[in-house]
């Protein structure tokens, strides 16, 4: 990236500023107020998931969205604490220090700064397209595993049972089972009442702040039932509602141990943000720059770590609510942060009245909603490869540390992509008439007759060292299926990549056809590909006159070469060019191709 581009990416003057006016400010303020109401309990819940004191989730909900909105590119996306990142942070840091302790908090803030720096590097090197290239199945499998881990971590709290904490899904459930003698029915009643409130409120109207209502119901049940006197754990008062500048205390060895997790969380955050931002941009017909979004996310996390906030990303829930509430510009996210601060100044004195089982009920609901059952069913029903990626990611997340799931999923996605790239489609074609036009279509699909001397084929996909073996195998298969056709036309369609191995295969095919008494012609539509083939020496063997821009030109050239002795006995007359060749006595010299009514048959 040049200096001017980097300066533009970091400039405070963003293109969306011009869209702000009195009307949009009013709409954005209303959307911001709605967003602040929903993120207040969410911020507390996500902080608990991350193993941090509640105020850290609220600080994240204030700082991250403002910076991401200013430097990002999405008009509607709201950033902040998210379930997936919170779960990974807890799974990572709880193995290094007890949750909520000063060392744990300092490591969380250090990890956040590292995440931001890695994301900034990704933005500087413009890796937006590469990050969004990873299979969606990875995130589905990862979030499903994270949901189980989150749910398992809250079972003890919902039952009023104190456990050691830490470990995976099975270990956490086993810890609860070992301490069932500590079960408190009142805790379960509070958690169940909170959970039921969310479900009921969302059924009434999804725009209502269901989490806020649920938190109020949980606190009310705690007061009515005397939760504090019955040994139910309560939240501690917030020491501050305004984030302050602080530099986390950490050591070099801790930084080194946090590197893999920082890369993993940075990747998860960018994948979430880019997916959400692109989805809303397409829905609203707006421009979206994934590389600029990466800059915004990186800056938001790098700065957040110095202001008592932990790693965040785009929030689908808050972004969807933002859109439904009529937001017009990123000012809505800035308004939401301001309104959240005002709410905290009013409500902070009442935080110590919230029973922890109430928050456990909310978090269990969040975990349940994190599992996309419809998408899982869709993947299983329609794609074996995507199902494999999903299962590998999910099983890894459940059986090992959660952050490992992302790396396994990414490797599986790349393996599937390489497998598909190494198996491009090779088709055999023949001419048909469709609505008065001559087209080339698949021989087996339309049950077409072919010229007895010419084999027209189409290669769709890359021709490189990884795909050469499969393509050659397909060539031999079609030679066996359609023998005697020594004159060949190969059309290269969608040729994303070709290397010397691919060129060597084309040379070998040309020499093979000529050795058998035939010839080999190539159809290449793009001049860039022609230049690449020329530079790699193909034309020294094939000849420049054997490369054509269209299939029609290639067919005309090859039909002029075929043996007249075979044409004299041929009644198929597959090509219009056959009119210039000898024909059987009394037969049409130029028989039109067969007429088809439809190209696709579903």
UniProtKB/TrEMBL annotation:
<keyword id="KW-1133">Transmembrane helix</keyword>
<feature type="region of interest" description="Disordered">
    <location>
        <begin position="580"/>
        <end position="602"/>
    </location>
</feature>
<keyword id="KW-0472">Membrane</keyword>
<keyword id="KW-0812">Transmembrane</keyword>
<feature type="transmembrane region" description="Helical">
    <location>
        <begin position="331"/>
        <end position="351"/>
    </location>
</feature>
<feature type="transmembrane region" description="Helical">
    <location>
        <begin position="64"/>
        <end position="91"/>
    </location>
</feature>
<feature type="transmembrane region" description="Helical">
    <location>
        <begin position="388"/>
        <end position="418"/>
    </location>
</feature>
<dbReference type="InterPro" id="IPR011547">
    <property type="entry name" value="SLC26A/SulP_dom"/>
</dbReference>
<feature type="transmembrane region" description="Helical">
    <location>
        <begin position="255"/>
        <end position="274"/>
    </location>
</feature>
<dbReference type="InterPro" id="IPR036513">
    <property type="entry name" value="STAS_dom_sf"/>
</dbReference>
<feature type="transmembrane region" description="Helical">
    <location>
        <begin position="182"/>
        <end position="201"/>
    </location>
</feature>
<feature type="transmembrane region" description="Helical">
    <location>
        <begin position="358"/>
        <end position="376"/>
    </location>
</feature>
<dbReference type="Pfam" id="PF01740">
    <property type="entry name" value="STAS"/>
</dbReference>
<dbReference type="Pfam" id="PF00916">
    <property type="entry name" value="Sulfate_transp"/>
</dbReference>
<protein>
    <submittedName>
        <fullName>SulP family sulfate permease</fullName>
    </submittedName>
</protein>
<feature type="transmembrane region" description="Helical">
    <location>
        <begin position="137"/>
        <end position="162"/>
    </location>
</feature>
<dbReference type="InterPro" id="IPR001902">
    <property type="entry name" value="SLC26A/SulP_fam"/>
</dbReference>
<feature type="domain" description="STAS">
    <location>
        <begin position="452"/>
        <end position="558"/>
    </location>
</feature>
<feature type="transmembrane region" description="Helical">
    <location>
        <begin position="29"/>
        <end position="52"/>
    </location>
</feature>
<dbReference type="GO" id="GO:0055085">
    <property type="term" value="P:transmembrane transport"/>
</dbReference>
<feature type="transmembrane region" description="Helical">
    <location>
        <begin position="103"/>
        <end position="125"/>
    </location>
</feature>
<dbReference type="GO" id="GO:0016020">
    <property type="term" value="C:membrane"/>
</dbReference>
<feature type="transmembrane region" description="Helical">
    <location>
        <begin position="208"/>
        <end position="235"/>
    </location>
</feature>
<dbReference type="InterPro" id="IPR002645">
    <property type="entry name" value="STAS_dom"/>
</dbReference>
């Amino acid at each position: 990236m040049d200096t001017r581009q980097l300066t533009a990416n970091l400039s405070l003057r963003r293109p969306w500023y011009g869209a702000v006016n009195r009307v949009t400010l009013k709409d954005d303020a209303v959307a911001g107020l709605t967003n602040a109401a929903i993120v207040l309990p969410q911020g507390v819940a996500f902080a608990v998931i991350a193993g941090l004191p509640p105020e850290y989730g609220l600080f994240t909900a204030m700082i991250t969205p403002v910076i991401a909105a200013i430097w990002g590119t999405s008009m509607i996306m709201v950033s902040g604490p998210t379930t997936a990142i919170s779960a990974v942070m807890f799974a990572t840091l709880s193995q290094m220090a007890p949750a909520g302790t000063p060392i744990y908090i300092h490591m969380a803030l250090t990890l956040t700064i590292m995440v931001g720096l890695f994301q900034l590097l990704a933005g500087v090197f413009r890796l937006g397209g590469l990050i969004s290239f990873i299979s969606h199945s990875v995130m589905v499998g990862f979030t499903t595993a994270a949901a189980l881990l989150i749910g398992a971590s809250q079972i003890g709290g919902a039952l009023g049972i104190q456990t050691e904490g830490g470990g995976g899904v099975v270990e956490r459930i086993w810890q609860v089972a070992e301490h069932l003698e500590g079960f408190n029915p009142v805790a379960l009643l509070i958690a169940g009442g909170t959970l039921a409130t969310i479900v009921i409120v969302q059924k009434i109207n999804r725009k209502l702040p269901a989490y806020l209502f649920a938190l109020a119901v949980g606190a009310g049940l705690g007061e009515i039932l005397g939760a504090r006197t019955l040994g139910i754990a309560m939240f501690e008062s917030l020491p501050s509602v305004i984030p302050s500048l602080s530099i986390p205390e950490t050591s070099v060895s801790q930084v080194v141990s946090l590197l893999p997790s920082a890369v993993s969380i940075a990747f998860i955050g960018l994948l979430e943000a880019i997916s959400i931002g692109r989805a809303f941009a397409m829905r609203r017909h707006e421009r979206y720059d994934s590389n600029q979004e990466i800059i915004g996310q990186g800056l938001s996390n790098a700065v957040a770590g110095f202001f008592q906030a932990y790693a965040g990303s785009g929030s689908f829930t808050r972004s969807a609510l933002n859109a439904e509430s009529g937001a017009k510009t990123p000012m809505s996210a800035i308004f939401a942060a301001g309104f959240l601060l005002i709410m905290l100044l009013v409500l902070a004195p009442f935080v110590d009245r919230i029973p922890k089982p109430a928050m456990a009920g909310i978090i269990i609901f969040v975990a349940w909603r994190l599992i996309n059952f419809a998408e899982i069913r869709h993947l299983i029903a329609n794609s074996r490869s995507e199902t494999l990626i999903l299962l590998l990611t999910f099983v890894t997340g459940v059986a090992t540390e959660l952050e490992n799931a992302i790396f396994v999923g990414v490797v599986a996605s790349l393996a599937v992509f390489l497998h598909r790239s190494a198996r491009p489609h090779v088709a055999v074609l023949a001419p048909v008439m469709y609505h008065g036009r001559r087209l080339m279509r698949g021989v087996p699909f339309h049950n077409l007759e072919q010229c007895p001397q010419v084999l027209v084929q189409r290669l769709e996909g890359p021709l490189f060292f990884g795909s050469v073996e499969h393509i050659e195998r397909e060539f031999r298969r079609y030679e066996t299926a359609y023998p005697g056709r020594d004159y060949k036309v190969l059309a290269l369609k969608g040729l994303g990549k070709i290397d010397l191995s691919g060129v060597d295969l084309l040379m070998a095919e040309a020499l093979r056809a000529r050795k058998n008494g035939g010839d080999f012609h190539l159809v290449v539509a793009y001049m860039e590909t022609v230049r690449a083939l020329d530079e790699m020496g193909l034309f020294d063997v094939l000849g420049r006159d054997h490369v054509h821009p269209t299939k029609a030109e290639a067919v005309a050239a090859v039909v002029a070469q075929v043996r007249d002795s075979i044409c004299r006995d041929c009644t198929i007359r597959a090509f219009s060019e056959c009119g210039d060749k000898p024909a059987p006595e009394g037969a049409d010299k130029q028989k039109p191709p067969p007429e088809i009514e439809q190209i696709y048959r579903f």
